[in-house]
Amino acid sequence: MRETGNAQARPYHHGDLSRALVEAARRILEAEGAAALSLRAVAREAGVSPAAPYHHFKDKTELLEAVAQQGWHALGLAIADARANAPTPRDSLSRIGLAYVKFARANPALYRLMYDTSRDRTAMPSHGKEVSETGYDQVQQAIIAAGADGADPIELELATIASWCAAHGLAEMACFKEFEPLKEAMGGEDAFLLGVLDHIGVLSRRHKHQA
After folding, report:
1. Coil, strand or helix: which one is 117?
2. What are the tens digits of pLDDT across the range 134-175?
3. At what angle do helices 153-173 and 189-198 cross, to 10 degrees?
4. Which domain holds residue 75?
5. Torsion over CA: 149, 152, 158, 161 (sign)
6. Do 174 and 134 belong together in one domain?
7. Which of 60, 181, 210 is CA-nearest to residue 189?
């Protein structure tokens, strides 16, 4: 195998080539977008022979799925950390939403890829063997800890989907220029995001009070 300057700059230990290729793919993804990704380009970025990636990934699709899996792992850790550091169980839901939005904003290309490779799956992607719960599971458990009835599986699932969608939607809209004055008035980006997240469900709460 011929090693290039990239390989010398980013050495990997024997047995770590798969990880090195995924990391190389992520660098290309964030710098140039998914269209620039190919097994040959990843091999070049990792500093290995063009044939080397085929020992670990049968095609580009499999490589992209591995990169997306790394993204889900990172998002799951961010969600778990936000939940663990929330002042109260009720606060954990908005803190999880904030962590989600900030992850999406910090990793736009990876974030898109994660959803592009997951829409046809029958379950939300897991973190990996070293983390026993998915980010989705963390959200569901946070909802129960905040007072939801965990005995009703349909209601719990709907609440989890709603919470996930709220953060996902906010991630899509948070960068809109028209919100800049409101962010400034509220004291910054995080205050704005938490304010929006704290108001999720306000219409349903009012409806219950009026009923």
Report:
1. coil
2. 899 999 999 999 988 889 999 999 999 999 999 999 999 999
3. 150
4. 69-210
5. positive
6. yes
7. 181
